[in-house]
Amino acid sequence: MRTSQYLLSTLKETPASAEVISHQLMLRAGLVRNVASGLYTWLPTGLKVLRKVEAIVREEMERAGAIEVLMPMVQPADLWEESGRWEDYGPELLRLNDRHNRPFVLGPTHEEVITKLVANEISSYKQLPLNVFQVQTKFRDEIRPRFGVMRGREFLMKDAYSFHLDESCLKNTYQKMYDAYCRIFERLGLDYRPVIADTGSIGGDASHEFHVLADSGEDDIAFSDTSDFAANIEKAEALAPQGTKPEATEQLTKVATPNVKTIEEVAAFLSVNVKQTVKTLLVKGDDEIAPVVALVLRGDHQLNDIKAEKISGIATPLTFASDEEIQTAVNCNAGSIGPINLSIPVIVDRSAAHLADFVCGANINDMHFTGANWDRDFQNYSVEDIRNVVEGDPSPCGQGNIVIKRGIEVGHIFQLGAKYAQAMNCGVLTEAGKNQILTMGCYGIGVSRIVAAAIEQNHDQYGIKWPSAIAPFQVAIVPMNMAKSARVKETAEKLYSQLQQAGIEVIFDDRKERPGVMFADHELIGTPFLLIVGERNLDNQQIEVKNRISGEKSLMDISDIMNLFA
Ligand code: ATP
Ligand code: MG
Ligand code: MG
Ligand code: MG
Fold it and tell me: What pLDDT is attached to residue 233?
């Protein structure tokens, strides 16, 4: 590729609209351009990276035994009615009508389409198990698209779906996919953690998320500093003031707020930014000085109106584990509670766990729960348990202590069970000749989000430092004053064709630009090697090689250059 015939599109200034470093660098390095909120054009350099991520994902899916299909992005509403999600999915589902006024959706995910397909195509247990995947554009009308392609509305996902006769077969495939995901993130060169996750609205049983560790991540993950135990603390999201996910607020959430000294401090914190506060508190835990604090937040109120109220009174012991139990609490105290919205996260001081039976304050006078209490027994830990951990706690797995860091969710796998197969009558004839509904797994990877996540983890003040597996170019040729030196031009051209012939992705900077401008562009784009061809070094048949990752510069004999790529 010659820069003179390419769309380099680098920018000198950092666009003010971009909050996180990956978004800034994706714009500056000419990877993407914004079209509308959450919608992006991938420029040539960005597309190269995207395709590389996609290729690694595809290879590992195939290695895991999944086979590729491609489903339409536009899906008929009746499939969504059949699964029940036409009602349930909420405003992230973009609905539209065709010219005949028939309703459709832009697919945010493809369980319905694939389950329907398998219901039609598969009739015998002999055709199972089946694992299919696609790499397809999804559309989710995110309430707050942000951080560039990290949370777009249109984005590229690899989604896979597996179908089984029984649970043990599902578990087997689930494990294969889990392992494939680990290989993918290793090959991508990313620092990641698989975490035990919540299954949310999609339903189902076991689930893991894969997180790339980065400060800009929107989730907190807690993991052991010595074992591979990890879990997501995504439920803190239930406290986000806007865009509160219905599925997140439907359950009570217990979040530790250990370093708070007074109720007033809690209130002050909360009125600023609840989500942030909870995260801060989670990290800076110190139970000794903490008072017993519990808050009940109504799912529908304005978070900046919250008032924390003092805990008082002792009533019947109760574990806040399910809506029914909350309802019981409500009923026990109906006189003072009034009509209560069950979509309520609870913030509770961790030290309250040592006590039993306290009242949770609400933002409206006299709206209290009594008898709040729960079990902090980590022996059989679950997602519920991990939500209460604080940095430094012994890990529930028995090895090491808990570390809490921000993560970017780049993958998510679920054991779905029969939810969709049941709703859409997806079954086969068993060996005994009976119809049996299938059990399913589903497995997503955010292909476009990975590009941003990789940059969050790999950059410096000059730009992107791509892991070599996904660098858009392996090497850039930067000739110095080519217009004035026939020798420089000839050497650069020769190197260029040599590298091209060897199948190495090379970008030849043949622009009439000052060397400083060219260096800055290639550092920004993050090409792993820069070959600087200059008059002076040619006297010794040498060129200067700069390693973008280590920053090292060295002189190399031209005849040895190909060894860089051996
Ligand atoms: P998030 O919690 O970030 O909203 P999710 O849990 O809704 O993601 P899944 O339904 O699990 O997402 O989808 C599988 C993968 O698709 C996610 O792990 C993530 O990598 C990616 N993804 C989801 N939403 C977006 C988005 N708006 N933009 C880019 N990638 C996304
Ligand atoms: Mg989401
Ligand atoms: Mg999520
Ligand atoms: Mg998810």
Answer: 67
By alpha-carbon position, which residue is closest to atom 25 of ligand 1?
A: 151
Of the candidates 130, 252, 248, the residue with the CA atom closest to the CA atom of residue 197: 248
Among 358, 318, 326, which Cα is nearest to 342's? 326
Give the amino acid at 275: K
* Atom 19 of ligand 1: nearest residue by CA position: 446
Burial string for 536-558 (b: 16+ CB within 10 Å, else e) reads ebbeeebbbbbebeeeeeeebeb
Q: Answer whether residue 251 shows pLDDT above 80.
A: no
221: nearest Cα among 408, 421, 360, 69: 408
The ligand 1 atom at the shortest distance from the C-alpha of residue 153 is 27
Question: Which domains does the chain carry?
Answer: 19-208+410-455 (3.30.930.10), 253-384 (3.90.960.10), 475-565 (3.40.50.800)
First-last CA distance in the chain:
21
Cα(137) to centroid of ligand 1, in Å? 12
| Atom from ligand 1 closest to the CA of residue 200 | 6
- Nearest Cα to 195, choosing from 381, 421, 28, 355? 381
Beta-carbon count within 10 A of 187 CB:
16
Ligand 1 atom closest to 210 (CA): 18
Q: What is the reported pLDDT for 317?
A: 23
Could you report the per-residue pLDDT of 166-183, keeping only the tens digit for each?
A: 999 999 999 999 999 999
Mean pLDDT over 256-263 rounds to 33
Residue 122 sits at φ, ψ, to 5 deg, of -110, 130
* Ligand 1 atom nearest to CA at 202: 10
- Hey, is 350 helix, strand or coil? helix
The ipTM value here is 0.99
Assess whether the C-beta atom of 235 lies below 6 angstroms from ligand 1: no
What is the rounded distance in angstroms from the CA atom of residue 515 to the CA atom of residue 556? 19
Q: What pLDDT does residue 128 have?
A: 97
Ligand 3 center to residue 324 CA distance, Å? 25
Question: φ, ψ for residue 154 (rounded to 5)?
Answer: -100, 130
- Please tell me if the CB atom of residue 29 comes closer than 6 angstroms to any atom of ligand 1: no
Which pair of tokens denotes residue 172? 């087997």
Q: How many CB atoms lie within 10 A of CB 344?
A: 25
- 384 in ligand 1 pocket by Cβ < 6 Å? no
How far is 391 from 229, CA to CA, in rounded Å? 14
pLDDT over threshold 80, residue 118: yes
**What is the Cα–Cα distance from 373 to 352, expressed in whole angstroms?**
8
